[in-house]
User: Fold histidine kinase from Propionivibrio dicarboxylicus.
Amino acid sequence: MTGNNGGRNRRLLDILWRYKPTPWRGSYSLSRLFLSFYLLVMGSFVAIAFFADFVISTSVRDITDDYTRRFMQGTIVLIEEDLFRKPRKDWPDAIRALDRKFSYKLDIVERWTLKLKRKQAEKLDAGELAIDTDGDVLYHRLKNTSQVLVVGPLSPNANPERPRSLPLELRVRLLTWSLIGFILAIAVWFWVRPVWRDLEALRKTARALGEGHFESRAPEARSRAFELLTETLNGMAERMQRLIAMQKELSSAISHELRTPIARMRFAVEMLPDADQADERERLQTMMNDDLEELDNLIDASLTYSRFEREQPELHLTSVDLAEWLNDNVDGIRILGRSLEITVDCSNLPPGQQVELDLKSMPYALTNLLRNAIKYAHSRVVVSAQISGSRALVHVDDDGIGIAPEERQKVFSAFTRLDRSRDRATGGYGLGLAIVRLVLEQHGGSAIADASPLGGARFTLNWPVLHSVTQS
Assistant:
């Protein structure tokens, strides 16, 4: 046995020795978070805008081309008539003279030199105006010739002979996009900054919790996106703090409680070899058996309390007849009352009163109260029930020594014993009533200690009635 314990201890030390916590990394960078989010939003916005512009321009292209044809039709016809008034050999000089008068370029080329799309080429050969892909150059075939009048680029900025400058449309676009980018940067900044603050606060809180500072809490979230996360983290931290405090208290209290039965067992083991008489050896063996039973009960009660405190098990409510349920549970524990008078009084209950309770945990609460009453009662224990408004009340009264008013709340804390006794007959571990409190809190109720009409203590279980009275 010693070898096994030594092996387990060595393995535990090996695990602890090999464990190296991951080093903490830096903090969230506001500038990096802002830049990445801004580029994402701005890039998406620009991509969507260009796509929308492409779709719209493609959709209205035919309308624009038609407008350009109708707008330039008269001018081109006049140029054509002016050319046909002159000999063909003078056309180049005439075009140059006209070109100087227009803000866009004029020229005459041979038809075979042009490479147009099929649809535009068919229009050109049919005597209609053709337009290039950019919609800025017009072509008109001079009647009964192989020559084509070229008009454009119509935009003055596209004419290489004109002074170069940024087109007005481009300047408007640049100004508009700059303004949009600036406004978007301000909006993103005011959105990202609270997010960054919340992320930093959550990171610092998580780091503090990881370093063992379980009292740390995240401040109130500035961004609504992190409200639930902040509440969840703080709830987790509060639960961790409570569980660790409970485990420390439980470990310390159990260690203290173990000393008495272990000391008695050690004394009995040391005395056993020197006991010559059979009755003395039997007395020592009985003492050791009682101490083992006490240890077993202590461990069982500690595990039960720890489970209720840690897990908050899910309730499985069942509707029961309160009077019938009380009688059944009290009958199951009467044998522990020895010569005590244990009675159940349901006279204040309406016939067939139904309540909802968990059939696994609520009997544990009632049994602990009955054990406590049996332990301290002189001659009587009375279990009674009544309905007060929308709540069920179950009273457990005894005629024992009672509880002082200033100590009635303390009895529901773990490892609290008011009698200061170490005798197995009256001294428990202070866990039974603590478990009663947890069970009633689980049911949305409470457990109360008060003075009993019988002269001793009264413990009351109080929880909501979810079902109405049914007449039998």
